[in-house]
């Protein structure tokens, strides 16, 4: 929806009083500095930028208060005589503040090696055609030499009172001025920065107020606006009118956002779901009462989660059995859709393309995995702890469904049925977003699973497995999660590239489970058996080079006799060996390594290094591993146990390929993802990733805490058998 914002070449940024200054009128250096840095960055990237800045009057009031205090006589101070704001005070404040504010802008832009220029305008500059053309040419001349125009109303002349009658083509505040400037210069985007996140469906101070993310002009009717920010003159109504006015005169898009939000200008122009987006091109709505459409997806998933939790374990088992059966029956349609995805994947990165293909054998493995989950012990309601707190007062800790999980994954279409099966086994609803490269495969797989759930005959289960289309819907759902009065999603699991995981982690307040890198190590000790070492090293790197559990760094002990055999075997498989000077000097690599120590190649390349001891290997792994999977190859049990004990990764192996770090291979039935954090789940995450726990307390009589203080009851805290 906002993707065309990335193509904006001419942007007008309006910084409101509440963004530029504090409540007392003094400039906000952090916010001003961030705006200057962002504007400078855009200019260096070739984007034309004009800054319309408020804040001069507020800044001037602060200056006048200071000067008045210095100018007062001792007698005035003794009489506590206060300075009154009489006629002309606002104009005087503007005169003082314009110089102070511009001096500050000049200093800040100087740090970016950019020169600012100031334009103080009045209604005449827009009403009088000659003045308007002169303003237009002057602004263009300034931009032609790489300077940034900073425009403000000349409040020292106008008196900062606005105009009671606003003729066509004029303005009554800096919001309207920004819209006129955007029209005058032919800007394609107007960004208005204020003290709230955007436009709300009612004044933000009212209970239940909700942020509106997208606005079509036709949606605004019978709107109720809040008050004006302290020190400002326009208010939200003026901003909305300015936005609509800008759209009417040809500005393609307007975004209203908080000037306090981190990197707000960069995020707006990257197309992120920030603030309120005004455009004539979005879907037209009769009113804004509909709210975020993705909120309904979350609510439907929540209903389905509660319905799943209410089912008997046997009923969830039947649903899984039906899914396995449907997957086998739909195999021809699934494979045909996948073949179309593969054929259309020419522009897809090689690493993703390698994960995209499905085969009959792979699909059968998926179906068997679903059946394995169906036949597994029901994980919900399992007794984990049992304790007598006092005679007749029994406490239990039992496993419980997590609720609603959002899973974002790239390429691998088989992940969809695997994740859905895990969620259903655990009594959870799942909302999924697959990669666009597997669009057709995912659509058929999702329809197959929905068909199996629908046959169960419970309408509340309709939202049990949902599939989102496009990144914009993910962003909308995450925003809805942050804004909804009750939780919509309990956990987000991004599966894919480093960039994907970090983007999700930075985009929501919902807990995120995942790993950003798969930098796995294999350490070959001097005691390693040559045949075992060659087998493990080759399998770890070559079995599936694009996988997150593939070896990326190969470490040899200084005296490892099998080092040459290992690298020769890798060369025979076409692996490019990139070595440190120490590895190169021993002939264990073919070219110098240029990437950092913590680097995921995802192809037939790996880093080779040499260390002096197992302790050095442990130190290297703990410093440069991503915490995913690391392996030691050794015949010395004490060396192996030291490595297993001291390496701080989710999976640490002895004489086993790193490729074993997988939910199916771990016997988990399937895999939600790999987690490298330390909270909730770690390593390959199966059904446990969809589980939490709850405490159940049962009293055989009637227990009150006061009875323990009075001595009627006594604590026993006795552990009971499970």
Summarize the structure.
By secondary structure, the chain is an alpha/beta fold. It has 26 helices and 27 strands.
Write the layout of secondary structure elements.
Elements: E1 10-15, H1 17-20, H2 29-44, E2 48-53, H3 56-71, H4 74-78, H5 89-110, E3 116-121, H6 124-127, H7 129-144, E4 148-153, H8 155-158, H9 174-185, E5 189-194, E6 199-200, E7 211-212, E8 214-215, H10 235-248, E9 253-258, H11 264-269, E10 276-278, H12 293-310, H13 313-329, H14 331-343, H15 350-356, H16 360-375, E11 383-390, E12 393-401, E13 404-409, H17 415-425, E14 429-433, H18 439-454, E15 465-467, H19 471-483, E16 491-495, H20 498-505, E17 520-524, H21 530-542, E18 551-557, H22 563-572, E19 576-579, H23 581-585, E20 591-592, E21 605-611, H24 614-624, E22 629-633, H25 637-646, E23 651-654, E24 673-675, E25 683-685, E26 691-699, H26 705-710, E27 718-719
Parallel strand pairs: 1-2, 1-5, 2-4, 3-4, 5-9, 8-10, 13-14, 13-16, 14-15, 17-18, 17-22, 18-21, 19-20, 19-21, 22-23
Antiparallel strand pairs: 6-7, 9-10, 11-12, 11-27, 12-26, 24-25
Helix pairs in contact: 3-5, 9-10, 12-19, 13-16, 13-17, 13-18, 14-18, 16-17, 21-22, 24-25
- Distance N terminus to C terminus? 54 Å
The coarse silhouette is: globular
Fraction in helix: 40-55%
Give Rg in angstroms.
32 Å
Major β-sheet strand ordering: 3-4-2-1-5-9-10-8
pLDDT < 50 stretches: 159-167, 228-233, 284-290
**Content of β-strand:** 15-25%
Total strand count, please? 27
Please summarize the sheet with the most strands. Answer: 8 strands, mixed
Number of helices: 26
Structural class: alpha/beta
Mean pLDDT: 86
């Amino acid at each position: 929806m906002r993707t065309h914002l990335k193509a904006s070449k001419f942007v007008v940024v309006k910084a409101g009083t509440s963004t530029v200054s504090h409540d007392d009128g003094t400039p906000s250096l952090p916010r001003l500095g961030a705006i200057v840095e962002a504007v400078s960055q855009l200019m260096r990237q070739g984007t034309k930028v004009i800054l319309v800045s408020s804040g001069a009057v507020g800044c001037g009031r602060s200056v006048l208060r200071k000067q008045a205090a210095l100018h007062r006589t001792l007698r005035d101070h003794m009489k506590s005589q206060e300075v009154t704001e009489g006629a002309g005070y606002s104009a005087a404040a503007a005169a003082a503040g314009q110089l102070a504010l511009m001096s500050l802008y000049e200093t800040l832009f100087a740090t970016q090696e950019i020169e600012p220029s100031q334009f103080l305008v009045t209604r005449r500059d827009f009403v009088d055609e000659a003045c308007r053309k002169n303003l237009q040419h002057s602004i263009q001349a300034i931009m032609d030499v790489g300077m940034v125009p900073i425009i403000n109303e000349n409040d020292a002349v106008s008196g900062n009172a606005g105009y009671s009658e606003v003729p066509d083509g004029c303005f009554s505040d800096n919001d309207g001025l920004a819209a006129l400037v955007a029209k005058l210069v032919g800007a394609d985007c107007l960004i208005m920065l204020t003290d709230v996140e955007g436009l709300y469906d009612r004044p933000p101070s009212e209970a239940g107020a909700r942020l509106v993310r997208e606005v079509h002009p036709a949606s605004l009717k019978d709107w109720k606006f809040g008050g004006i920010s302290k020190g400002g003159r326009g208010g939200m109504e003026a901003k909305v009118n300015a936005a609509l006015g800008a759209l009417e005169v040809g500005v393609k898009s307007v975004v209203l956002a908080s000037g306090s939000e981190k990197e707000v200008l960069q995020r707006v122009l990257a197309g992120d779901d920030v603030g309120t987006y005004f455009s004539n091109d979005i879907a037209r709505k009769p009113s804004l009462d509909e709210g975020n459409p993705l909120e309904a997806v979350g609510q439907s998933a929540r209903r389905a989660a509660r319905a799943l939790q209410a089912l008997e374990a046997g009923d969830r088992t039947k649903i899984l059995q039906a899914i396995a059966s449907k997957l086998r029956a739909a195999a021809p349609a699934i494979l045909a859709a996948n073949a179309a995805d593969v054929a259309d994947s020419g522009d897809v990165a090689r690493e993703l393309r390698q994960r995209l293909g499905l085969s009959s054998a792979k699909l059968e493995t998926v179906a068997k995995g679903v059946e394995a989950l169906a036949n597994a012990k029901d994980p919900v309601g399992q007794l984990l702890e049992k304790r007598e707190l006092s005679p007749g007062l029994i406490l239990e800790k039992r496993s419980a469904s997590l609720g609603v999980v959002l899973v974002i994954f790239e390429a691998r279409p088989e992940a969809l049925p695997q994740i859905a099966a895990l969620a259903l086994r655990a009594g959870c609803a799942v909302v999924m977003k697959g990669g666009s490269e597997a669009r057709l495969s995912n659509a058929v797989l999702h329809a197959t699973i929905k068909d199996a759930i629908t046959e169960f005959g419970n309408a509340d289960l309709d939202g049990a497995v949902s599939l989102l289309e496009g990144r914009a819907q993910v962003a909308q759902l995450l925003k809805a999660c942050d804004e909804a009065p009750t939780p919509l999603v309990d956990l987000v699991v991004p599966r894919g590239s480093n960039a994907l995981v970090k983007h999700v982690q930075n985009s929501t307040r919902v807990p995120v489970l995942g790993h950003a890198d798969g930098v796995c190590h294999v350490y070959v000790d001097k005691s390693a058996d040559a045949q075992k070492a060659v087998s493990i090293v080759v399998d770890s790197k070559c079995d599936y080079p694009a996988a997150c559990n593939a070896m990326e760094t190969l470490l040899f002990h200084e005296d490892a006799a099998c080092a040459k055999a290992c690298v020769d075997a890798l060369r025979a498989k076409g692996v490019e060996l990139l070595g440190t000077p120490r590895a190169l000097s021993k002939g264990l690599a073919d070219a110098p390594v240029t990437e950092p120590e913590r680097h995921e190649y995802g192809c037939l390349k790996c880093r080779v290094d040499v260390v002096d001891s197992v302790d050095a290997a442990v130190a290297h792994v703990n410093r440069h591993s991503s915490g995913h999977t690391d392996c030691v190859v050794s015949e010395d049990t004490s060396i192996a146990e030291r490595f297993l004990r001291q390496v701080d990764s989710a999976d640490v192996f002895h004489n086993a390929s790193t490729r074993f770090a997988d939910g199916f291979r771990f016997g988990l039935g399937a895999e939600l993802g790999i987690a490298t954090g330390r909270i909730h789940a770690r390593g390959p995450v199966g059904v446990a990733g969809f589980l939490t726990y709850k405490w159940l307390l049962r009293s055989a009589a009637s227990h009150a805490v006061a009875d323990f203080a009075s001595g009627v009851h006594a604590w026993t805290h006795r552990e009971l058998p499970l």
